[in-house]
Design a protein that fits this description.
This protein is of the alpha+beta class and 263 residues long. The protein contains 5 helices and 18 strands. A hairpin with a 5-residue loop joins strand 1 (4-8) and strand 2.
């Protein structure tokens, strides 16, 4: 049974899910917004269908899976949502202002996503952690630890800002992207991190003063790529730059009057 999902909002979206009897949705802790009173919630170390519950061996498997998720910056446990009676209502969202995507996995396609992209999925979708390689992680600063989704059912992911969907095959087979702009891609696309230009004077000038660093992500192949308009690093820097420190209240207040940043 296909999950009934409505994405509400524009660039600060939430997913409103109508749960049918027999359907189970699991979400990362912290992504829950609201639910109707007939929706039951359980907290578990594993996703639905994983053989990690029951006995010492099951507990250890669940702890190992939870440990992998913590390495990826995810929560230690999942919240499981179901409705024992009639239809139930469930609201979910990401943690940053931005868009969401409702993806349908058909059992034959694998999806990869940057850490923190996962919001929730149906019980038939398997969540796992993938490692893109130590070399790529050291070069790019992003993409070393990835989320991997297989199986069949609905998957909800979120990011920052606006989304755009691209297929590298429509642009000569290759798309180069700031590593922080990548949200997710399917297994028809190959992901790598490469050096920007040559390590000469112009290359260093472009890297240092162009704001992109020395590396970019390269996406090749024929498949779907989801990019976001705001990088988490850029968003954090903007907040830090405009934050008013306690010992600078006077200057901050004066500056806010001229900049229009205070009401």
């Amino acid at each position: 049974m296909t999950l009934d999902v409505q994405l509400v909002g524009t660039t600060t979206q939430m997913a409103v899910v109508t749960l049918r009897p027999g359907q189970v949705v699991y979400a990362e802790a912290g992504k829950f917004l609201f639910s109707s009173g007939d929706v039951a919630v359980e907290t578990k170390l594993s996703a639905p269908g994983e053989k990690s519950e029951g006995g010492l061996g099951g507990l250890l498997r669940g702890a190992v899976g939870a440990g992998k998720r913590v390495l990826a910056g995810e929560s230690f446990a999942f919240q499981h949502f179901s409705t024992p009676g009639g239809d139930g209502l469930l609201g979910l969202a990401g943690v940053l202002p931005g868009e969401m995507r409702h993806l349908e996995l058909d059992g034959s396609t694998t999806w990869f996503a940057e850490k923190d992209a996962f919001v929730a999925a149906e019980a038939g979708v398997h969540f796992d952690i993938a490692f893109s390689g130590l070399g790529q992680g050291l070069m790019g600063g992003e993409g070393f630890i990835l989320e991997r989704f297989t199986g069949r059912g609905s998957l909800l992911i979120a990011g920052a800002g606006d989304f755009i969907d691209l297929n590298p095959a429509d642009y000569g087979g290759t798309v180069r992207v700031d590593t922080g702009c990548i949200v997710a891609w399917d297994d028809g696309v190959q992901y790598s991190v490469e050096t920007v230009g040559r390590l000469n004077r112009q290359g260093i000038m472009s890297a240092v003063f162009g704001g992109e660093g020395l590396t970019l992500a390269t996406l090749r192949g024929n498949g779907r790529v989801i990019l976001q308009s705001v990088t988490i690093e850029g968003f954090a820097k903007a907040l830090a730059k405009n934050a008013v420190k306690p010992d600078q209240q006077g200057l901050g207040a004066i500056g806010g009057l001229f900049s229009g940043s205070r009401g």
